[in-house]
Amino acid sequence: MQVGFLIEKLKELHIHTIAGVPDSALKPFCNYVNTHLDPSFCHFVPANEGAAVGIAIGSYLASGNPACIYMQNSGLGNTVNPITSLANEKVYDIPMLLLIGWRGQPGRKDEPQHKFMGEITLPMLDVLSIPYAVISSETTKEELEIVFRQARKCLDGNKQYAIVAAPGAFEEEEAGSYENTYSIIREDAIRKILGSLGEKDIVVSTTGKISREVYEQSNRIFGGHSECFLTVGGMGHASMIAFGIAVENPHKRVICIEGDGAVLMHMGSMAFLGKQKPKNMVHICLNNEAHESVGGMPTGAAPDYWKNAKDLGYEHSEVIESYHELDKAFPQILNRAGLSFVEIKVAMDSRKDLGRPVESAVENKAEFMKHIN
Asked: DSSP letters along 297-362, please?
């Protein structure tokens, strides 16, 4: 499907608000709405998919028109509460169109974190009583017309409707790439952090390219990665995993490495950490102001995370914007007492030959648990 065709169909459905969190399976669509979207539309990238449902509800209440929410199928879980407790016909009866990228589609090779969610995506929509259609690169224009007629019928009846898009469903279109002005290469920062670790230090890294870079750099520096827990899924939850480990291992330092999109998605975790003040935890945000791992769309907000951490009760908080500051700061940062937060401004850059873990997630878990115990 050409993205322009979808946009025209959205207009026909009286949709003028689009909100969501980027997904690689929807990359052509995400690129389009970020760079070429008709000015008659409003486009927002909120912190998480549940917030996008909130935007859709507010937009409908004010205008009487449904909104379109896009997401990776993993984000469907974030939408369940606002859909079931607010939008459902038994509550406020709010129509909305869901555009869902189908990662982990059965029969298609994908990363481990997508496998189970891929299996239950369509059953979840059935449980939520949301009618849906699956589209792929083989879906014909005539079939698409039927899909949008079904969507119109549901939306006109104040119901939700979902279009589940397999990877490749949208044709690639030329799009401008997002860049920032920062000079530090993220993998260089990860190399510096890992190279400053002590013998008993533990690393928890977030999903996406950060964990892939932690994996490769740890293997190069230490000859293995048993000290690293790679949070390959569950975007935004790495800091709480790190906290749980830190509480159980008070005599070991735990370094949590996240991206800004992950920190933003569940930012309440920072408030929790600031209140709990684990003395043996360092929270690092590698900030490129973008969702790079799923296509490179800029995040919908760009706060000063280090200032927020300071206000929320972290005992130490700082920002690093140059290689000179990076070299000067480590390993001192990892050797001070008290809960620390470090924001490192990094460029939009990653190696084209960046690999992926060769071990299974279960194997990595077993190796990690053996190491810390």
From this structure: EEPS----HHHHHHHTT-SEEEEE-SHHHHHHHTTGGGGSSS-EEEEEEB-S---TT----SS-HH
Higher pLDDT, 126 or 350: 126
Q: Decide: 283 and 256 in contact? Cβ < 8 Å.
A: yes
Q: What is the largest CA-CA distance in the chain?
A: 64
290-291 vs 297-298, strand pairing mode: antiparallel
Mean pLDDT of the chain: 94
Mean pLDDT value across residues 136-146:
95
Cα 304 from Cα 307, distance rounded (Å): 5
- The whole-number pLDDT of residue 351 equals 85
Domains identified in the chain and CATH numbers: 3-165 (3.40.50.970), 186-372 (3.40.50.970)
Amino acid letter, residue 23: D
| pLDDT of 175 higher than 60 | no
Q: What is the mean pLDDT of residues 211-224?
A: 95
* Helix, strand, coil content of the chain in percent (nearest 5): 45, 20, 40
Q: Whose CA is closest to 52, among 98, 19, 74, 77?
A: 19
State how far the Cα of 318 lies from the Cα of 310, in Å rounded to an integer: 9
Residue 176 pLDDT grade (very low, low, confident, very high; cuts 50, 70, 90): low
Cβ atoms 286, 258 nearer than 8 A: yes
- DSSP E strands in 130-197: the ranges are 132-135, 160-165
Adjacent-strand bridge partners of 319: 343
Amino acid making up residue 91: V
CB distance 201 to 252 below 8 Å = yes
Q: How far apart are CA 250 and CA 266, in angstroms?
A: 24
* Secondary structure class of 160 (helix, strand, coil): strand
Long-range contacts of 144-147 (CB under 8 A, 24+ apart): 144/1, 144/5, 144/9
Q: Encode 290-307: b = buried (16+ Cβ within 10 Å), e = exposed.
A: bbbbbbbbbbbeeeebbe
